[in-house]
Specification:
- By secondary structure, the protein is α+β, with helices and mostly antiparallel strands.
- The chain is about 20% helix and about 30% strand.
- The chain contains 6 helices and 14 strands.
- Strand 7 and strand 8 form a beta hairpin.
- It is globular and about 65 Å long.
Length: about 300
């Protein structure tokens, strides 16, 4: 598995970041008939009936909560995000459209749409959820075409926050022909995924991988290898994927709090579950966990590679 295989890691379009400081950029773009707008409501956006995102003109979205400049398409037209709170009503002109959530449809979109969607949701959720200065509590002013906030009281400048989180596919000791997955306490029965967790202050990513797997499954790791990353705005993570090998398969046991079950899966069991032909549910196509599992299945995650 490479970063290019991860659905939300693919390049969307030119973000044209050098334009964000141009005064009146968003206002000018909203007056331009060639500008295209992606409406995001929480983590969902309108879809075309034939597949792909449905972008509209600025006049079709007169009352967005926040606006942001996402970049320029291949024709040089500006692309904006019109941001709505998750509990807001859908814009009247798009209410009858099909809508899809990023985590559900992101893996089925082409690279441009997938990149655009995750950019808009990541930025939009920050704009909607963080209007106040965390230092003094004053309502901030949006700047840089939606990419920063400035506090008019204390003068601090704030940017979208990204929290690093690791996720790892753990192969069995020896030949690595089995994969260890866990079932989280928040999930339904028979749903399994890779082990994941947030990096802590003063901790390397490799140390985070080893600690999280040890805490959740009791397994010590070796041969920890970086595989790739992708954004995951739930709420604001950058997921950094790894492959690793267990030191002792028999040490596997669930912590009983966050992880209720751990289980070693054979390649045939994984293959059957990915095909939807078993009672086991694996991660959806938008997630990096799916990419790690598929990478292990095809041999891309072999620790000897």
């Amino acid at each position: 598995m490479t970063a290019h295989d991860l659905p939300l890691a693919r390049a969307g379009m030119d973000r044209a970041a050098d334009e964000r400081l141009i005064p009146g950029l968003i206002d000018d773009a909203r007056r331009d008939l060639t500008t295209r707008v992606l409406v995001v409501r929480g983590d969902e956006a309108p879809l075309q009936r034939t597949g792909g995102l449905r972008l509209v003109g600025p006049a079709d979205v007169p009352d967005a909560h926040e606006w942001a400049f996402l970049g320029r398409d291949d024709d040089g037209a500006a692309v904006l995000a019109a941001v709505f709170d998750a509990d807001a009503e859908r814009p009247a002109g798009l209410a009858s459209s099909d809508w899809g959530m990023l985590r559900v449809v992101g893996g089925e979109l082409d690279p441009r749409d997938a990149g655009l969607f995750v950019e808009a949701v990541s930025l939009g959720r920050w704009l909607a959820d963080s209007p106040f200065c965390p230092a003094c509590g004053t309502r901030t002013v949006t700047e840089s075409a939606g990419w920063s906030r400035r506090c008019p009281n204390c003068g601090r400048q704030h940017f979208p926050r990204t929290d690093p989180a690791v996720i790892v596919a753990v192969a069995s000791a020896g030949d690595g022909d089995r994969l260890l997955l866990g079932s989280n306490a928040l999930w339904g029965q028979d749903r399994y995924s890779c082990f994941a967790g947030f990096g802590e202050a003063g901790e390397s990513l490799e140390a985070t991988v080893a600690r999280e797997v040890r805490e959740e499954s009791g397994v010590e790791l070796e041969s920890i290898r970086y595989a790739g990353s992708q954004p995951w705005p739930y709420p604001r993570s950058l997921m950094l994927g790894f492959h690793a090998q267990a030191r002792d398969d028999d040490a596997a046991r669930a912590d009983g709090e966050e992880i209720l079950q751990v289980r070693w899966f054979t390649r045939d069991e994984i293959r059957t579950a990915l095909a939807g032909e078993s009672d086991v549910t694996l991660p959806g196509t938008s997630s990096i966990a799916r990419g790690l599992i598929e990478g292990w299945l095809t041999g891309a995650g072999d620790t000897a590679a």
